[in-house]
Each structure stands twice: as C-alpha cells, then as structure tokens.
Design goal:
two-stranded antiparallel ribbon; mainly alpha
C-alpha cells in the first residue's frame, strides 16, 4: 500500500487529514465502523498482521474502558440491562449508554489508527516540502518529530539490550517494583543525555548549512501534475460530499432514549468510496506495472 508515496505529498496529506476530520465530525455508528474497518485494513497492509497487533493491541482496552466508563457514569437510555450497586449510589447500566461508549471508543481508535498509517506512509521531506513556504518552522518541527520519536524508541531498545548484556543482574533487580522504578530512571537519564547530545549536533549542523540566514528552499522541487490532480480532486470532492453526509447523519441519529435503527442510505457510499481511494491508486499502479512488462 505504498502507491500513495509515489504521488505529491499533498495527496497523502489531504487524504489522511480528511479521514481524521471525518472520523471526528460525527458520532453516527455506521461511519465510525466504515472508518475503523478501512483504518485497520490499511494499518495491516502497511505493518503486517503481527506488527499491527503488536503496535495497536492496547486500543481494545481503550475502547473497553470508554464503553464501561460511559455505561457507569452516563446512565442514560431506557433499555436497562442491570443495576450496578456502588454502595452509595445505584447506577442503571443501559444498552444505549454502552453503545454510545463503543462509538466514542471507535472514534478515538480511528483517529489514532489513521495517524499511525499516515506516519508510516509519509516522510520528513514531504512535511518540509508541504510547509516550507507556508510555515517553515512548523514544517521543520513536524519533520524532526517524525524522525526523533522512532530514533528515541530505537535508542531506548538499544540501551535496554546493552544493559541486559553487560549487567545480567539487572533482570533480577527489575523483578521488584523498586528495581523497575530505578531502572526506568536510569534509562530515562541515558535517553535525556542522548537527546541533548543529538539536539546539539543537529543544531550545529543546521547552523553550518546556513539555516535561518535566508528563506528556506526545498531540494525536492516537485510540482502537482495531472497524475496527482486526479486523486487529489477525487479526495476533495468525495471529502466535501462525505462531510455533509457525516454531519447530517450525526444530527439525525439518536442514541437516547432508544437506539435508532440503522437503515441503508446513499450517504454512506461517498465515504466508502473515499476510503477506497488509496486502494484504487494501488491497483492503478499495479495495472500500469503489469502492462509495462
């Protein structure tokens, strides 16, 4: 699913920002389910099944926590499953409140997943190219953050492996809570030292290359071509149409006092087609490569 990386950076940026905005724009369950399925499919295509489970397993607990929290403290609705006795108060647990919590959890999970896929399919050069003229400082900060976070995690794993190799007794000390806290403090100290050294080296390198002396330029001068205009136009048109449908569906759908029945509606199809834009781009690239053989 890396065909979108072959296009101008504005294409990928427009698609993922559109999906994130649409995921936040409505609490309608059908749109959230469609967004969740698409985000999971793209995340699996980018990271693989094992990588997806390893990096996103905790989202299940986030969704479950939000569902239970809303069920306990947002006890609205008339379809009571049971009454939870907390001693000082009795809270009715309703299907409506639990379902509302599930949709809220899906909305948060969708945003996280789309950001995750976006980080995997974008590069620091793309950020610099997008924001170099509009906001050079913001573009530089975003690009450095995208590079620094994976480097920081990699450095933490390297320090942990070095500690395990040269200090075998550390594993025994980490079996207690005090030992784990001490080890976490030591690891954080090493990471802070490495981060400060890395920042000084980067700052000196930027000064040596003339950063701040004149208006920033990009060494990759790519322009939007007709090849980029087709998917970009499709994203913008489908995004605007989907935004209207998402807002309308969110205004019409009711969770309380009873769950509204979900019916088949034409407004779901523009959003579904928008989710398939990267897949269509990938199929187009595969077809072009097959014809060129």
């Amino acid at each position: 699913m890396d065909a979108i990386k072959q296009y101008h950076p504005v294409v990928g940026f427009s698609f993922f920002m559109t999906m994130i905005v649409l995921s936040l724009a409505s609490m309608q369950p059908v749109f959230q389910v469609i967004s969740f399925i698409a985000a999971v499919a793209y995340a699996v295509a980018v990271s693989g099944v094992r990588g997806f489970i390893k990096g996103n397993w905790w989202l299940i607990f986030i969704i479950a926590f939000i569902t239970l929290f809303n069920g306990v403290f947002g006890g609205r609705g008339l379809t009571v499953l049971f009454t939870l006795n907390l001693g000082f108060i009795q809270t009715p647990i309703t299907i409506e409140s639990l379902f509302y919590g599930v949709v809220m959890g899906l909305m948060l999970a969708n945003v996280i997943l789309w950001f995750n896929v976006f980080s995997k399919l974008s590069s620091e050069h793309g950020f610099v190219e997008l924001f170099a003229r509009v906001s050079p400082t913001a573009g530089l900060m975003l690009s450095r953050i995208m590079v620094f976070i994976p480097e920081l995690l990699g450095q933490a794993r390297m320090i942990d492996r070095a500690q395990r190799s040269f200090l075998p007794g550390e594993s025994a000390q980490k079996s207690t809570r005090k030992g784990r806290l001490a080890y976490a403090g030591t690891l954080s100290s090493h990471l802070m030292e490495w981060g400060m050294e890395k920042s000084l080296i980067t700052a000196n390198s930027m000064l040596a290359r003339g950063y701040g002396s004149r208006k920033r330029t990009s060494y990759r001068r790519t322009r939007i071509t007709a090849r980029d205009a087709v998917p970009l136009t499709a994203i913008l048109v489908l995004g605007m149409l989907s935004l209207g449908c998402v807002i309308w569906a969110g205004m019409v759908y009711e969770f309380y006092p009873y769950l509204m029945a979900v019916e088949l509606w034409w407004g779901y199809f523009p959003f579904l087609l928008l989710c398939c834009v990267p897949l269509i781009m990938q199929l187009g690239e595969e077809l072009a490569w097959w014809r060129s053989r």
